[in-house]
Amino acid sequence: MKEQKFHPVLIFGTRASGKTTLLKEFIKYYYDKHNIKDTREWIMNLSSEKDRGIHTIRDKVTDFCKSAHSKPNSLRFIVIDDVVDLATQDEIYNSIFSKDTLWTFARTVFYDRHPEVLEKQKNQLMSFTHQIMDFNTGEKFDSFPLYSKPLINGASSLGKSIRQVYNSRLQLQLPLLTEKDKMYGVPHIDAHHSFEYKIGVYYVNQVDGDTVLFKQTNKNCTPEDIKNGKLDIDMTIPPKKGRLIIFDGDIYHSVGKPKTDMRCIVNYNFNFNE
Questions:
Q1: Contact (CB, 8 A) for 170 and 266
Q2: 69 and 115 fall within a common domain
Q3: Which of 31, 54, 76 is the last residue of a domain?
Q4: What CA–CA distances, in Å, run from 254 to 131, 195, 251?
Q5: pLDDT above 60: residue 115
Q6: Is 13 part of any domain?
Q7: pLDDT bucket at 173, cuts 50 / 70 / 90
Q8: Which pLDDT score is estimated for 15?
Q9: Of 180, 192, 181, which is closest to residue 223 (Cα–Cα)?
Q10: Cβ(135)–Cβ(164) under 8 Å?
């Protein structure tokens, strides 16, 4: 195995499909290879039967993430499944695809200061957007209770609250992939703020078209790297209805191109209260 950093991994499947066995074997291999004897500070075991409820997240998971984050070479992003209940998931879906939602055709669905990157985006995306709110226009996030619920619930499950949402919009990609197309669009960051921020992605429907996270950030990536396709994929996360992912806003990421159906997300640029 090539020497590299260990990043978070999401393993999912039906009951008794071998998830735990696979994970145990991988952990054993990894720690044997690196001669790590005491794994207690790096591994957290939770039981789906015993460790349920908001107190588990607030008391156990939050403390673990804080301690692990202080370790060198650590990297974290967050995936929360069923961040809202099934009824709310359906309500969000039905609201978005009602006749009252006005969609705007977009050659690009994100912002970038580099003209050559923007031009490349125009040739690779067939998207529509619907602006939910923009902080610069004086709109408040809590004025949109249905679309704000996934992010608010996600923050609450982590023992946090939302300080500010700077931008939120719906994004819809159509399944127009051809054999000549790449499987994902141009790597990008959502906005060039003068401050650190988080990105939240809530998946409205379950479809192909993964979210692709790259190892490069705004601090170590150039327009030439993007133009020449020199970014390294760190992780791909499949869309699942009701799933919310949160990651740092300076991480370059990309929109996976759907092949079977339209791909719809709610996008948030925001910060937590610390």
A1: yes
A2: no
A3: 76
A4: 19, 21, 10
A5: no
A6: no
A7: confident
A8: 62
A9: 192
A10: yes
